[in-house]
Amino acid sequence: MAFNAKIRVTLRKSILDVQGKAVHQALGNLGYNDIDSVRIGKYIEVHINEEDIEKAKKITDDICHKLLSNPVMEDYSYDLETI
Amino acid sequence: MAFNAKIRVTLRKSILDVQGKAVHQALGNLGYNDIDSVRIGKYIEVHINEEDIEKAKKITDDICHKLLSNPVMEDYSYDLETI
């Protein structure tokens, strides 16, 4: 058994998302005026070869803290799927 | 009423994910040897000011096709949440 961690890393709400603003403006230029805001982050899928879900959670939290997200500016969330 | 579109844009499985490979290697160097693969994509949250869910879906598919993903190399999927 293994797990697929579907991780979302996003800028903290308090931080200006310059990339999101640029895309929001581009969508406005394309005529999509019903869009209030756009925020852009990273989507990371990690296949973890682990039997126990608690250990898989621990590995996922560890790698998010240490490498995949910047705890100063970013938040992360994830779903674990058995495969 | 409005909708929050949570969009995931990922490289097609057939395409080599160079970024994912680099992160996979870095995790191995940090001692995480239980990880089989890492694939990295974009996570985009779009607030859509629309009452009707079918129209919100149409807008989301449109903006994914026209701007947020590259149909030649990327796939997209999304969830619509009422807010």
UniProtKB/TrEMBL annotation, chains A, B:
Cellular localisation: Cytoplasm
Claim: Nucleotide-binding is one of the keywords in the record: yes
The main enzyme category here is ligase
What SUPFAM superfamilies does the entry give?
PurS-like
What Enzyme Commission number(s) appear in the record?
6.3.5.3
Gene3D superfamilies noted in UniProt: Phosphoribosylformylglycinamidine synthase subunit PurS
> Which domain of life does the UniProt lineage start with?
Bacteria
Instruction: Please list the GO terms describing molecular function.
Output: ATP binding; phosphoribosylformylglycinamidine synthase activity
Q: Which reaction does it catalyse?
A: N(2)-formyl-N(1)-(5-phospho-beta-D-ribosyl)glycinamide + L-glutamine + ATP + H2O = 2-formamido-N(1)-(5-O-phospho-beta-D-ribosyl)acetamidine + L-glutamate + ADP + phosphate + H(+)
> Per the record, what is one GO cellular component?
cytoplasm
Q: In which pathway does it act?
A: Purine metabolism; IMP biosynthesis via de novo pathway; 5-amino-1-(5-phospho-D-ribosyl)imidazole from N(2)-formyl-N(1)-(5-phospho-D-ribosyl)glycinamide: step 1/2
A Gene Ontology biological process term: 'de novo' IMP biosynthetic process
Note whether GTP-binding occurs among the keywords.
Answer: no
Annotated InterPro entries = PurS, PurS-like_sf
Q: Principal place where this protein is found?
A: cytoplasm
Alphabetical UniProt keywords: ATP-binding, Cytoplasm, Ligase, Nucleotide-binding, Purine biosynthesis
Spell out the family assignment given in the record's similarity comment.
Belongs to the PurS family.
NCBIfam families named in the record: phosphoribosylformylglycinamidine synthase subunit PurS, PRK05974.1
Give the multimer and partner information.
Answer: Part of the FGAM synthase complex composed of 1 PurL, 1 PurQ and 2 PurS subunits.
The role this protein plays is: Part of the phosphoribosylformylglycinamidine synthase complex involved in the purines biosynthetic pathway. Catalyzes the ATP-dependent conversion of formylglycinamide ribonucleotide (FGAR) and glutamine to yield formylglycinamidine ribonucleotide (FGAM) and glutamate. The FGAM synthase complex is composed of three subunits. PurQ produces an ammonia molecule by converting glutamine to glutamate. PurL transfers the ammonia molecule to FGAR to form FGAM in an ATP-dependent manner.
Q: What is this protein called?
A: Phosphoribosylformylglycinamidine synthase subunit PurS
What organism does the UniProt record list as the source?
Chloroherpeton thalassium (strain ATCC 35110 / GB-78)
User: What is the taxonomic lineage of the source species?
Assistant: Bacteria, Pseudomonadati, Chlorobiota, Chlorobiia, Chlorobiales
Name of encoding gene: purS
